[in-house]
Amino acid sequence: MWMLLASFLFAVQAAFVKLAGTDVGALEFVFYRGVFGMVIIGLWAYFTGHTVKTRYLWSQLNRGFYGTGGMWLWLYSLAYLPIGTSMTLNNTSPLFMAAILLGLGLFRGKKIEWELTLATVIGFIGVIFILQPEFREGDFFPASMGLLSGFLGALAYFQIKQLARMREPSWRVVFYFSMFNLVFGLIGHTFFENPSLYNVKTIGCIVGTGLTATLAQVCMTKAYAVGNLLLSALLQFSGIIFGCIIGLIFFSDSLGFLSSLGILIIIAAGTGASVITKRKPAAPDE
């Protein structure tokens, strides 16, 4: 449920970004995500008597580096690839997670979650049906960067799980990730984007993006911290479904046969994985 809520909030955040159009740069949105995250969590920590100080600064920096680096590579690939192709490559994170867990299981002689691995692959097939990626001549390098963004995303999620095992609260993990967003977004916007156009609409979109992104990050971090890694990763595909629904309602988008089939595949894979996870006893590290 934490991941489903996070996916919905990320889809709403994307709707705010789409509504703003080109009036606000992508990197500036990253900057404001960081601002809202640090301010909201910082104020909450102050008034509730918590502290943002951490004993695991290196792990927090790793999470921030992987997550922010993956975001930057995705934005780069988005500038040179069709949006469906870029989003498909960025959504390979669950596949990388499944591959890494599979390799670790074989190497250490541990039981492998074959059912969840298969469900993840099936869910990704649904993603392909919805986004329908296409590759053109000269797309090799940006496609490689998009694929690398998915890999870094997987490493970020593993880092979240490690921080959870260290008893680091989810909100503190989001605070330091927001700090990375702030610095990265500020530098990137200053040097690579034109000044934004501020009006009532764009300010509303910035506020909406900042609030939904912060809440979504907290929910997603909580999901990876307390839940099964593969199930959480698979349920993250639901964000594409929420995005399609929002597009239908608010942006007059349409769904073809393949997209509709892809949605059904993702729902079936997520439901099957949830049932499988519910029936088996939780592992000590889950």
Give the helix/strand layout.
Layout: H1 2-20, H2 26-47, H3 57-80, H4 83-90, H5 93-108, H6 114-131, H7 140-165, H8 170-192, H9 200-226, H10 229-235, H11 238-250, H12 257-279
Q: Name the structural class.
A: mainly alpha
β-strand number: 0
- The helix fraction, in percent, is over 70%
Topology pattern, helix = H, strand = E? HHHHHHHHHHHH
Largest sheet: none
Count of individual helical segments: 12
Radius of gyration: 19 Å
Question: Shape from CA axes?
Answer: globular
**Percent of residues in beta strands?**
under 5%
N-end to C-end Cα span: 16 Å
How would you state the average pLDDT, rounded? 92
Q: List low-confidence stretches.
A: none
Can you put this structure into words, describing what you see?
With 286 residues, the protein is mainly alpha-helical. Helix 2 packs antiparallel against helix 8 and helix 5 packs across helix 7. It is globular and about 50 Å long. The model has no long low-confidence stretch (mean pLDDT 92).
Write a compact overview of the structure shown.
The chain is mainly alpha-helical and 286 residues long. The protein is built from twelve helices and no strands. Helix 1 (2-20) crosses helix 11 (238-250), helix 3 (57-80) packs across helix 8 and helix 4 packs antiparallel against helix 6 (114-131).
Features:
mainly alpha, globular, 286 residues, single chain
